Amino acid sequence: MYIIAIAWIYVVVLMSFTEESFVAGLATFLFYGLAPLALLLYLIGTPQRRRNRRRREAHVPAADDCPPDPASSESPSDPGLAASGSSDAGPQKAKP
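Above: the chain's sequence. Below: its structure in token form.
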């Protein structure tokens, strides 16, 4: 699909180079090339954006339905971690 867009931009750039003035060339590029191509790519990409949104909503539960994350709480649930002052959850080695 992008090869067609690139080819169309190429054709429109060549058309804009053949215009008599810079303003006419810029208008040709914007109104024959950039604006219609942006609209076309947006419309063609709508089904994919819709599928991505539905897939994202299906895999991510709503924030109201989720229980609170125990790792994000301020006080650790393991009393051994609170006494040692360590914030990592890995095993602690005993010091001799």
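The mean pLDDT is 79.
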